[in-house]
Structures are given as C-alpha cells and as structure tokens.
Amino acid sequence: MALGALFSQTAHTANLFLRLCYFSLVIKRLLSAVLIFTIVGLPAGSKQTSKAIAAAPLHVSGDYIYDLNDSLLRRYPSRFGGTAGNNAFKTSHDEFADAVVALLKTIMAPLDDPGTYAELRPFVNEGSPFYNIIAVVPGTDPVLKNEFVLVGGHYDCTTWTLDGAIDCGMQVALTAAVLKAFVDYWVGNRIRPKRSLMVAFFDGEEQCLCGSVSFTTTDAYRGMNHLASKNFDLPPQASVVAYHDTDMIGANYPGRYFGRSDLDFMPLNVSSAPTYTDGEGPDDRLARAWEPYAATAPAHAAKFMLYRQDMKAARDRLFVDMRTKFAHTSFTYRDGQTRPLFTESQKKYVNIQDDPADRSDHSVLILQGIPAEISIGIWDPNSSNPGLLSYHNANETLEFLNYMYSGQQRRSAETILGVETAGMFVAYTMGANKPEEGLFLLGETGAP
C-alpha cells in the first residue's frame, strides 16, 4: 500500500508539473507574439489603432555589396562573353548570367507581386550569342507604371581579367544591393513605387557596347517568341525616364587613398548627360567636342539640365542623411586621426559633370535622348595622389580594392563605408527616401 501511494503521489506531482510547463509555454508564446507585433507592427491590412509607425529609411548595406561581390568572384571567374579571337572558349559567363537571374528573383520574392520578373534576353552580334539580364518591379500608379527608372551596369569582363572585382563585379553586386534595399524598404513600410523599376545588366560592353545597342533597338524586341515580347511594351526611348549606370565603381569617396588622413579623398566621378551650360569638372569640353553628343545632345539640353539638377539634389540629400540618419559624421583612419565626413566642402568629391564621352552603355542611351549618367570610382589622372585605379588586368581583385582604401589587402571599415556610400548615392538618384516622383524618380504610394 505504501509503495502504491508513493507511485500515486508521484504521478499526481508529475501531472501538476506537466500542467505548469504547458501553461508556462502558452504564456511564453503569447508574450512572444506580443513582442513580435510590437517590433514588426500589425500585418498588412490590419487596422492600426495606435499612432503611426515611423517609416525606417532606406539603407544600402556595404557589407552586403562586399560579400556578394566576393561570393560571385569566387564562384564565377572570367566572364568574357561571346568569342575571343573568333574562337569560342569556356568561361563562367553563362553560368554567371543564370545565377544573377536567380538572385534577382530571390531579392524580389518578398514583394509577392506576380508582375515582377527576371529573365535573360538573348541577342546575336557578329555571329556570337549574348544575353542581357533584365528584371522589373512594376509600378502602381496607373500612368507612371509605364515609365521605367533603369539601373545597372555591364556584367561581362575582358579576356585578360580573372576576377573583375571592380570592372565588372562591383556594379553587379552594388546594383543587386540597391534593389534589395528598395524591396526591403517597400515591404517593411508597406509601400510601393509609382514608376516601375528596371534592372539591366548589359552584355558585350567590353567588346562593342552591343548589349545596350540591342536594348535600345526597337526591332530587337518585336516578333520574338520569348518573354521579352510580352514584358516590354514600349521601346526604351519612350519608356525609360532615367538610366543610372555604374562601372569601375567601388574605390571612391569617402575613402582616402591608402587609409591615410593626410592624403586626399578618392573621388566618386559622376558623368551625366551633357548640358553644355553646367559642370563642375574640367572635362566638360570633351563632351562638347565629341561629335555624336554635339549632334544630338543640344536637342535634349533642357531635359538634361533638369536631370542634372535632380542629380545634385540627390547628392545634397545624401550628405545630410548620411550625417543625420545614419550617423556617419566622422571617421578614424589607420593613422589614428579622426576627420569629419559628408561636409558641405566635401561635396566636390562626388563630382557631377558633363559626360566626357566615356565609353560605356550610358552613352548609348544618352544618344537616344534618355537622361543617364555613369558613376565611376577613381578616375582622375590629374590628381596629386595616385588617381587611376588599375583595371583590366590580373590585379583587379578585392584585395587591391582594399589596399586602395586602407593600405592593407584585407577587408576594412574604409572599404565597407566606401561601397555603401556608392550604393546609397545610386539609390538616392533613383529617389530613395523621397516620396515625390518628380520627373525622373520612382516615387512612393501605399501598397496595393
């Protein structure tokens, strides 16, 4: 009897213990749910009775840019497109293109919008196959959704570049990070763009600019039995309101040469559609002298001038927000000296000027009357410090980029802040953290 009573008492105690554990688990889950709703906010479509949640500002992650570039370089070296010397040879070009399409789809997935897409658009140049990469987030405004804000760069590399960390790896990683920042911002704040956003990674830039030429040739997308014919209703000349090109980007303001506070900032050079009446740099005369621009750009000068004003306004907003919203007021360099950042006097290092006939895809769109610019890192042969970033050779690696930023080959805070700033500038030229759409920006509206 005593043993039976002991078992009965033990079972009763165990039952009470299990009940207590169960109720404790229920309470914890309820508290967790309350905590999640407190942090994240009410689900979309729920009525919010408390005061409105402040929208978190859009931010482009420098760590994301660096890590993505590093990962792509390791997995897909040598991305020359088409043929070399009329002889086909094996590169990672096609595998890279497929991987980028998959990446763009993954980035856009949180929008849960059946109108988003990413695809390859094939074309042929001199008998060689090429593939432009196109991705679209449709706008929500009934009229403005038919207009595109285009961002990207070329993704092909030269035959003699193994890594292509700066030309062409960085522009792919940076553009992907900009797209991700917009998607995260839209989803997190339950808003959508008014205009449509298009990402374009052009192929064949190094050989012939043939990717952007194909893109701007209306007949290239007519009567073709693939996705492009149903996803591209108007030619770029009638539908693209602005093109934000990037190339050789990465080594730029607010980085100082080799991470030394006594050396100058590395410039972020922004070569914009020529206005012939405005410019901050000494190379404006080159744009005036370049015959194709001289023959076509004056007809679009008024539009290009408005675009230039928007570019400068974006730079001004960026400098204010980097100090106030993102707390980048100063930086301590490797020599131990702390210097201020994003000051009024430093705006000149984001050098916005008439495009000096730079040979890249933005020139093709400018000739079509489309407002466009290209953002490039170090490219200043007249600088008192080393002003020309080594590229198109075997030294074009992330280690070399790190060395330019910090004097060391490993990843550094200087590098991360530099690529973050470049990404933020591109995003701000597209309308980041600015609800109004103006003539060239994405704009914002409530999520459908």
Topology:
Layout lengths: L1 H39 L21 H14 L17 H16 L8 E9 L2 E10 L10 E7 L10 H25 L1 E2 L3 E7 L7 H6 L12 H4 L4 H4 E7 L21 E5 L11 H6 L1 H6 L4 H24 L5 E3 L5 E3 L9 E5 L6 H6 L5 E5 L21 H9 L6 H18 L14 E2 L2
**Helix/sheet category:** alpha/beta
What is the assembly state of the chains in this entry? single chain
Distance from N terminus to C terminus (CA atoms, Å) equals 71 Å
Q: What characteristic shape results from the CA principal axes?
A: globular
Quote the average pLDDT: 77
Characterize the main sheet.
8 strands, mixed
Extract low-pLDDT stretches. 1-54, 84-89, 219-234, 380-387
Describe the structure.
This protein has an 8-stranded mixed β-sheet with strand order 1-2-5-3-6-11-7-10. A two-stranded antiparallel sheet has the order 4-12. It has a two-stranded antiparallel ribbon with strand order 8-9. Strand 8 and strand 9 form a beta hairpin. Helices cover 40% and strands 15% of the residues. Helix 2 crosses helix 13, helix 4 crosses helix 13 and helix 10 packs across helix 13. With 448 residues, the chain is of the alpha/beta class. The radius of gyration is 26 Å and the shape is globular.
Task: Based on the model shown, name its key terms.
two-stranded antiparallel sheet, 448 residues, 13 helices, globular, alpha/beta, single chain, eight-stranded mixed beta sheet
Short characterization:
With 448 residues, the protein is an alpha/beta fold.
